[in-house]
Description:
The structure holds 2 protein chains of 2 kinds. Chain A is α+β, with helices and mostly antiparallel strands. Chain A is about 55% helix and about 20% strand. Chain A has 2 domains: about 1-50 and about 265-395, no CATH class; about 65-250, no CATH class. In chain B, helix 3 (about 105-115) crosses helix 4 (about 120-135). The longest helix of chain B is centred in the C-terminal third of the chain and has 16 residues, at about 180-195. Classes of the chains: A alpha+beta, B alpha/beta.
Amino acid sequence: MFLEIIKMSIESLWGNKIRTFLSMLGIIIGVSTVIAVVGIGKGAEQSVNEQFQGLSANSLIIMSSRSRGSTGSSNLKASDASVVKEKAEYITEATSLVRGSETVSVGKESANVSILGIDHNYFDVSNYTLKEGESITEEDIDSREKKVILGFNTVENLFEGDVDLVGQNITIKGKSYEIIGVLDEIGSSFGPVVPDDSIFVPYTTAEKSILGTKAFILLNLTVGSVENVEVATQEVSAILREEHKLKASADDDFRISDAGSMVGAAQESAQLMTVLLTAVAAIVLLVSGIGIMNVMFVTVAERTREIGIAKAIGAKQFDVLSQFLLESVALSTIGGFFGIILGLGALYLINYLNIMLIAYTVIGPIVGFSFSVIVGVFFGFYPAFKASRLDPVDALRGE
Amino acid sequence: MKKELAIKLNNVHKSYFLANGDEVPVLKGINLEIKNGEFVALMGESGGGKTTLLNIIGVLHPLSSGEYYLDGENIGEVQDDFTLAYIRNKKMGFVFQQFNLYLRLTALKNISLPALYAGQERQVREKKAMELMESVGIKNRAEYKPTELSGGQQQRVSICRSLINDPEILLADEPTGALDSKSGLEIMKIFSDLKKRGKTIIMVTHTSEVAKYADRVIFLRDGKVVDNDYKLTSHY
């Protein structure tokens, strides 16, 4: 009997193809929006997570910034790292990074490459791993060795074909540097440093021999535990102010940012995007639901006489209710089904055209589909209920 | 045991309420008894309450007051949809002047519909429908839709529909009113035949030609029964 009622519902929908299609359109758009939104939102979250992968929430980054009113460069020095590490209670690791760029040549090839002067423990702190060769040692730092480690992409830029790189030499500012290692691919990372496109040298070498005053200093600190990030920030600030001999009235000549809160902010904005897009989708579904309700009212009004007949020949209120409810659910479910196809198609297209990072999830279609069924039941119920309560004699007279 | 009385009405009143709250009494104390197997015609002036009375007997309308005994049981105050639907479905069959068929459905489906609501299997109900169609000579019209049938054929479909659940009582509201006299005659022959097979028939009509087929005529005027065994020849 249930099947018969479903069959009758579908027949009646089929009898009004254009109206059926138009009222379905809202659901189709609504559900496909939900799916696209979930895909895009999840994609954004994923890309944030990927971007900050390998970055622990307990790292602090200190960059130079000129204090207001003063001229000349910041007082931040690579050696501040060791001062901080020595004096600060909450800091367990401190490395400095000297950043700049310089022309690097190999044979006749030359390119302007980002140079990173690093401390001996920089790779450990940053979670970078070597593909081959070895890292820079403390002795290399102390004696300002002319040794380099290549970032993943620089190999391709400077050398042709597969060659054994370790042990070869490259030339920077007319001096020869020995390649002692090559990094694994790191991917994108936090801050202005792109490790894959850089070459690494001891920071002492970078500061004195290569970059000089062009050097941009960055300190990379690790706080003992995440809870202490805030106190550590204050502590480090005090130590640096003292070290740089800043007056109480002067602004900091450095800037401390903690990775945790930056990752948090980025994740929050990605989540906010999901929430906003979901709200848009919810509104679209609501509007489509109202459309369905409207169509169902028209349908009930049109079939008033039929309802009267049905009741006169023994249909229960429940029979009438389920007949119309099934019709609206069929309407929204079929719409939901096409919505899923359209939504997944849109995601595929966005991905194919490389517009945005997309995450395919089961959540999108499941949420979209259940929403369409819920919309059908919710917005179909009232018209169906009204239909079921019609007085049979009035209904027979109607039309 | 089948009771002798199919229907008994005691002082039945029915009023409608207009939108402004005014009460319009239509039935003003109806008393009547209809025996099992009887063929009764309801006659009277327009607006005299014939159709309202038929709708009350067919539990399409609730009564305003009074008692309605169906098979000896007072159902005048029953409001439960389940019971009312059961009575309309199994106890009574309705035949309308305007046929009231589903235009979207074939004759066969139209006839089977009450059996669908009664929860019968498709094979069972369609077999029964075919038998009924054969008995009124429209078996070859099973797959036709109402719009493809003549008025007489549509009314036969509608009679078959009223019979599908084997009710004891048939209610007919001017069953020949929309038909030409020849088709009307044929329909009345079907009703006589049904009466012979033991059905209780209550029929509203305003033509004495049609009323002649009944065992007895109940005459209504201004919401009251003025004659329980009205003699046709005296007025018409």
